[in-house]
Design a protein that fits this description.
Elements lengths: L21 H19 L12 E6 L5 H12 L3 E6 L9 H11 L5 E6 L4 H6 L5 E7 L5 H15 L6 E5 L6 H12 L3 E5 L15 E3 L2 H4 L5 E4 L15 H8 L3 H4 L7 E3 L12 H4 L7 H21 L8
Parallel strand pairs: 1-2, 1-3, 3-4, 5-6, 5-8, 6-7, 8-9
Helix pairs in contact: 1-5, 1-11, 2-11, 5-6, 5-11
This protein binds N-carbamoyl-L-aspartate.
């Protein structure tokens, strides 16, 4: 018998928040809590996943997500290999599947995939035998980001239920927004989106959010302000008159924060664009900004996800 207790987690892959319930999310967050201290200790390594192989397959650039998955795997004792594939050199469809099948033949235990196309990670999960974790697919989902955001909020506010969270900026192109909206709704938070009309998906209120086009109203009495980067790499055409105007109306500075609750906290998934969606003084304000804490929680959450998918007694359904 293993000296490490095995938890029950009824999922083979982590492709999105869509498909999880409140109990699944609580299992991940509770387990992640236990890894925070380990990550702060001098000896950060455990042998839980010794002998397992994880590949980070990234078709898009990444600093935080890729590094934290690598650290997470290594701290649990697994072998981790990073593969960066320039998206331009990869043809979609068959080539993606061929890559996956090639890797699959090497007896992997987990594949962490980031891809510019929404749905690509699911396609790949259907073709391989190992666990697949979505590290961000197009503007669709980025589940581990929402989970690390939830852990950060829960530690600071003691709960998710009943909080009001404003997600501000380029919601249209944001997988972070989509995963966070889903998770926060499942956990009983009130979610608002604050953005110009051009940066909101059609029928956004169907996602279970209150919609605002004006920061003063949208931030009134909120507990959490979650800022998003302008994702220009996903913009085809012109969505904004100018960056200066955008910052004036939607960039977060201390004046706009004054509308929120006095103990409101500021989050951003990174990378931040100072002076575009967030003022430097806010990003660096340690009383308000949780940006660095989010990065720290990212490692703990990814350790929990790898642990649960690789060790939990999941009923395996072969494809
Ligand atoms: C986000 C992403 O890649 O979706 N970043 C991240 O994972 N930390 C958000 C972004 O790129 O703006």
């Amino acid at each position: 018998m293993s000296k490490f207790p095995v938890l029950h987690f009824p999922h083979r892959h982590l492709l999105g928040i869509d498909g999880l319930d409140a109990a699944d999310i609580a299992i991940i967050l509770d387990l992640a809590e236990t890894y925070i201290e380990q990550n702060r200790a001098d000896d950060k390594k455990r042998a839980l996943l010794r002998g397992r192989t994880i590949i980070n397959l990234f078709f898009e650039n990444s600093t935080r997500t890729r590094t934290s998955f690598e650290l997470a795997g290594k701290r649990l004792g697994a072998d981790v290999i990073n593969m960066s594939v320039a998206s331009t050199s990869v043809k979609k469809g068959e080539t993606l599947l061929d890559t996956a099948l090639t890797l699959n033949a090497m007896h992997l235990d987990a594949l962490v995939v980031r891809h510019p196309d929404s749905g690509a990670v699911k396609l790949l999960a259907e073709a391989v035998n190992c666990a697949v974790i979505n590290g961000g697919d197009g503007s669709h989902e980025h589940p581990t980001q929402a989970l690390l955001d939830a852990l950060t909020i829960r530690r600071r506010k003691g709960r998710l239920h009943g909080l009001t969270v404003a997600i501000c900026g380029d919601v249209l192109h944001s997988r972070v927004a989509r995963s966070n909206i889903a998770l926060l709704n499942i956990m009983g938070a009130h979610v608002r989106v604050v953005a110009p009309r051009t940066l909101l998906p059609a029928q956004v209120s169907r996602l279970g959010v209150e919609v605002f086009h004006d920061m003063a109203r949208g931030l009134a009495d909120v507990d959490i302000i979650m800022m998003l980067r302008l994702q220009t790499e996903r913009m085809h055409g012109s969505f904004l008159p100018s960056i200066r105007e955008y910052f004036h109306f939607y960039g977060l500075d201390h004046n706009k924060i004054a509308r929120a609750r006095p103990d409101a906290l500021v989050m951003h998934p990174g990378p931040i664009n100072r002076g575009v969606e967030i003022d430097s003084a806010v990003a660096d304000d340690l009383d308000r900004s949780l940006i660095r804490e989010q990065v720290e929680m990212g490692v703990a959450v990814r350790m929990a996800c790898l642990d649960l998918l690789l060790r939990a007694n999941t009923p395996m359904t072969e494809h």
